[in-house]
């Protein structure tokens, strides 16, 4: 485009110059004509006019040549400019296609990430709803106690077989502990309580100032020790229940904080024979009880096991007798096989001897008859005739 503009700019001065020359020639011719009309210097004017016409003809030829040259250059410039524009269009189209593909791929990845973000946001929203529900549960004393009891019941129901525990059973004094585990061997049942003073604990945890936290800690210690005394007074009945009861704490972190900051309350609980247990400790204790119950069931079934062992020993004795009989049969069969092998060996050796027999010709027989007198058989005996007479000689002997 720049080259075409430059060519047009170069061509315009030439055209203006040619026009100017043409006007000048026309004015000169007009002047000469006037002078000729006046009749002076006609010969000189003719020569000058001839020179001007020749110069004009040369100028027109040069102008035609320049026009052809500029026309060819303009065609070449247009062709080059068209090819460059085509190449530029192809490059621009290829670049736009690549950018379109890249943009499409980025949009696809962005949509996938947005889908993941939406799923995570939905999970966060559901988790927030669960947290709100948990806060609502913990804000209510009755539902809070049901929450701790639910965790305790889930642990016991998963670890012990049905029929070995009872929930909300009534004791002889009219109290109803949260769980009663029946012990084997006729031992008194084990009592588990899940009414932990969680409200006092939450108040102590949510306190911001040091004085408020200290006051809330004292209140929690007082509530905990009061609840420990209530368990010892209501559930530890001599001859009816075990002399030890469990106080279930529904959180491992709360259990650790109690043992770290309220050691005096832990000692009072031990003195009152109340054991504070977390979910993990309760599960371990239940597993110990389960092992004791399993041992009791094995002891109850010991006579059945002994009877089965006796039957097994009898079966083993009969199996041993039958194996001995089978061994004797195998021994007899082995002896029979050895005897058969001896007989087959003898038969094979006799066959080899028979195969090694040699038949003598008639000439050999006559030569032998010279050395040895003839047998007392007659010549008419076919077995001893001259033609059919033969001699058997054993080559190999054992």
Automatic annotation (TrEMBL):
Start-end of Basic and acidic residues biased regions: 361-371
Keyword entries, A-Z: Coiled coil, DNA recombination, Membrane, Transmembrane, Transmembrane helix
Q: Which Pfam families match?
A: RmuC (PF02646)
Q: Which residues cross the membrane?
A: 14-34
> Which Gene Ontology terms describe the biological processes this protein takes part in?
DNA recombination
Organism for this UniProt entry = Martelella lutilitoris
Q: What does this protein do?
A: Involved in DNA recombination.
- Would the keyword RNA-binding be found if you checked this record's keyword annotation? no
Name the gene that codes for it.
Answer: rmuC
Source organism, top-level taxon? Bacteria
Q: What does the sequence similarity comment in the record state about its family?
A: Belongs to the RmuC family.
Claim: Transmembrane is one of the keywords in the record: yes
What's this protein's name?
Answer: DNA recombination protein RmuC homolog
Annotated region described as Disordered, given as residue ranges: 361-389
């Amino acid at each position: 485009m720049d080259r075409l503009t430059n060519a047009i700019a170069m061509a315009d001065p030439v055209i203006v110059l040619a026009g100017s020359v043409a006007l000048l020639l026309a004015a000169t011719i007009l002047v000469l004509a006037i002078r000729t009309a006046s009749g002076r210097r006609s010969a000189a004017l003719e020569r000058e006019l001839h020179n001007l016409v020749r110069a004009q003809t040369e100028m027109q030829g040069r102008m035609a040549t320049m026009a052809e040259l500029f026309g060819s250059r303009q065609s070449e410039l247009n062709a080059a400019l068209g090819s460059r524009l085509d190449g530029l269009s192809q490059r621009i189209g290829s670049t736009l296609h690549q950018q379109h593909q890249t943009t499409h791929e980025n949009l696809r990845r962005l949509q996938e990430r947005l889908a993941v973000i939406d799923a995570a946001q939905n999970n966060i929203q559901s988790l927030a709803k669960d947290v709100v529900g948990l806060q609502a549960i913990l804000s209510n004393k009755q539902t809070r106690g049901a929450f701790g009891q639910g965790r305790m019941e889930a642990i016991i129901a998963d670890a012990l077989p049905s029929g070995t525990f009872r929930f909300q059973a009534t004791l002889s004094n009219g109290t109803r502990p949260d769980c009663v585990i029946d012990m084997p061997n006729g031992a008194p049942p084990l009592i588990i309580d899940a009414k932990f003073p969680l409200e006092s604990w939450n108040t102590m945890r949510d306190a911001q100032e040091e004085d408020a936290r200290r006051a809330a800690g004292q209140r929690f210690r007082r509530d905990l020790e009061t609840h420990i005394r209530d368990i010892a007074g209501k559930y530890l009945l001599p001859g009816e229940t075990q002399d030890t009861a469990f106080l279930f704490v529904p959180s491992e972190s709360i259990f650790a904080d109690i043992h770290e900051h309220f050691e005096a309350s832990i000692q009072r609980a031990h003195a009152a024979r109340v054991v504070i247990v977390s979910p993990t400790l309760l599960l371990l204790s239940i597993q110990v009880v389960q092992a004791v119950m399993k041992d009791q069931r094995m002891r109850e079934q010991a006579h059945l096991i002994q009877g089965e062992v006796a039957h097994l020993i009898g079966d083993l004795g009969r199996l041993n007798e039958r194996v001995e009989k089978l061994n004797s049969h195998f021994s007899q069969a082995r002896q029979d096989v050895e005897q058969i092998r001896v007989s087959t060996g003898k038969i094979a050796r006799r066959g080899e001897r028979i195969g090694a027999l040699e038949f003598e010709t008639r000439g050999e027989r006559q030569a032998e008859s010279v050395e040895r007198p003839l047998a007392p058989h007659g010549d008419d005996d076919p077995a001893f005739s001259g033609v059919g007479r033969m001699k058997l000689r054993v080559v190999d002997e054992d």
